[in-house]
Amino acid sequence: MRSTLRCPLFARVASVVGLGTLLAPAQEVAAERDEIAARIAHARELLAAIGYPVPATVTHEERNAEQALADLDAQQELFQSGESFELQHALLSRLNLPAGDSPAELRRQTLEGLASGISAYYDPLRKRFALLATDSRAISDRLGGGLQLVVHELVHAHQDEREGGLERLFGSAPRTLDTLLARRCAIEGEADLAATLAIGGTGALEQLDDEAMRMLTSVLGGEFSGLLYDAGRRLALASYRSAGLDGVRALGTRPPSSSEQALHPSKLGKDLPTALVAPELEGFQLARKTTLGELFSLHVLRLLKVEQLEAAIAAAGWDGDLLVAYDRGDERNAVLLWRSFWDREEDAADFESRLKPRARVVISRKGRVVDWFAFAETALRARAAAAFARQREEPPESSADAASTAAEELVLRERLRRSEQEGGQWRHAEIGLSVPVPEGWQLTTIRGMQVLIEKKPPQPSFTTNLNVGKSPRGKIGDLDALEAATRDQFQQFELSILAMERGRRGKHEVLSGEYKGKFPGTPLLHFFFLAYLHGERQVWVTLTTTQDRSAAELDAFRALMRSIAIDG
Asked: Which of 454, 442, 432, 444 lies closest to 508 in space, CA to CA?
């Protein structure tokens, strides 16, 4: 398990580094240890108060970067199937997607992604909790004392104390990628909900379903982690709303049967995936197989550059899949088949249309079944196609499953309509916001977050970007409170305010201005912002560039911010 800090797009968090306390004077080391001990004790008290006692045997220990990576590597044996990396590598390679030169390289890249920005983790194999002195934790401390990190990870320690612990939860699952990801969603969602409830009470739970939370998780931890954590939060929140904390705890004993149910809590316990039987291929042995599931299928579509919400719609309606590797002699993965079933024929057709043709790849569909297969030599094409076609039958259709998918897609399409580019404007109908798209800029999705970016940034290491963030207004009742909270946050992050003023856009009072500052791994940055309250939300528009831009360029950015309209 791991925790990362959620931070704005402009804050790049450094990779894992050695504990800074190792180089500090003895008295500073002692003070740091006392602070950590006090923070852990406080976290234990908060969790005990909501019925999440942490075993006294779980203690904190110092781990350096090398040890942390070793811990994460060992945990992969628990959280992924033994052949998962080989099958993922085979599929991604045949799709011409980044996967490294080997399954081992893909595993290494995955671990580096997990370690990026890591601040704390609970190790279920060693029954220990580690809080690392990284740049991301330093930022987290400024935001809230780092308590969320500690409480989240100690929830995992509580989960591990239940009957059989986390090793039973994952060890007893069918060892497919989909079922293991569904369990990850369940435990991470419970940890986020319990931590939020313990620290902020029931009033803070609304942030678990907050768009800004989803965006920021993806920005820091990577889009795939963002998908997993987002699904987990929404699953836990839906369970809490229907059955309180008992419903959330039940996710550990009755986890979702698939990642589809985690992504769509309304399907929990209803839309069960179809079990697929791997077709036979004469002269070959079935060497490895797994089920990828909706979550990983969605991830593949995003890697194929399908826009975020369009990819979510295309992946919705998943009803089961099987990824199978066929070997012949010493030749591994001579044929690779990815067969998927769908709730409706239109779902299958949408998914099929997103899979791009490749050399030595065949894509075909029969009704609600989509076959994608790759072959090592041309002579295998006709032979494999004939064998797979003979053994391809549609499962019985379920009107209930089809109806639930139609309802889920309706929600996703509504979200798609709320933010779209039209007539040179980036429109956000839900909050009445309209942002002009300047010449030389484009609307794109980066790590699950829609942003406007310069097409040709003058500095290759940093792309000037504009993003729109929406989050619950919470206790911020008016513009005075918004300004006070803004100044406080700028002070915490040691950001220098260059300008801040009040004004009006349409019928809304707004706060606007500029500030500058530096984050780990970034150059000195210059920010322009516009903030206002809309219903129960606070809205932030932020343009981020580097401080070394010319006076004329900075004036152009100011003009862009002034041209933003609020008409709703």
From this structure: 432
